Amino acid sequence: MNECIFPPVLEEGRQLPFYLTCAGGWDHQERMYRREGYGDYQWIQVLQGKGYLWAGGKEFTLTAGQGMLLFPDEGHHYYALQEPWEVRWIAFNGKHAGELLAAMHFTETQVLNLSDPEVILTKLAQIINLLQSKHPMRLYTCSSLVYQILLDLFTYSSVSELRTKQQNYEQLSPGLHYIEDHYNEVITLSMLAEKLGISQQYTCQLFQMTLGMRPFEYITNYRLSKAKELLMQEASMEIKEIARRTGYEHPSYFIKVFKQAEGMTPTAFRSMYMHTDRRWGR
């Protein structure tokens, strides 16, 4: 493939969180030097060969299974170190692009490793095919695909040789499954560590890296989600019984934890949502 497609960007499209400005691919990427950078965000993914990137005063090398996420208006240059250096890319922007990328922890130009490159390459190919079609909604579908690609980067990519979020979830999953099956029982850190086959200290680190919270924060979060379900599904069930079924021996402590998390007592929560359901005829 040697192609570069620039779709028309309508004013209506510029109001979207993400919109596509360019897409394409080269069987051999030529040297690119941009002193002032490029006006949009870019994702450039390597299929084969090896390349060099300089951006933001940092140097990177890229091979198959990696890609570069470039931020707008930042000087950069890149070129092949091992030919052919085959790449596919998209350029994009959006009304809320910066803040949404930041929410995914993408705040600067970086090289990313992909645990499953084909997931993103498939969507890049879909974008090219759409742009070559006459489908009337192709620009909106491309916008959706850009967002999906960024979510894939969040899920399947890592900086340097660090593990991806997907790999962290896979390691953490026995502990998460145990919590889901035993949330109404006593769960200790040592139990979770044993299920995961790692130390208690690393168990805490793994929860923090993967979920952004400590193990007991996650347990509390999960228990309260189940408590909410019981409050709604079992309208006559007493609060002390809901507390017991969600792993709280003392109803007063359950009420305290619930109020801290939701800003209201379990009884007030039930009353508010049950009233809403009757109001709307459900």
From TrEMBL:
Statement: the UniProt record of this protein carries the keyword ATP-binding: no
Keywords: DNA-binding, Transcription, Transcription regulation
Keyword Transcription: yes
Entry-linked SMART domains: HTH_ARAC
Record-linked SUPFAM superfamilies: Homeodomain-like, Regulatory protein AraC
A molecular-function term among this protein's GO annotations: DNA-binding transcription factor activity
Gene3D superfamilies in alphabetical order: Homeodomain-like, Regulatory protein AraC
Top-level taxon of origin: Bacteria
Pfam families: AraC_binding (PF02311), HTH_18 (PF12833)
HTH araC/xylS-type domain: residues covered: 173-272
Protein name as annotated: HTH araC/xylS-type domain-containing protein
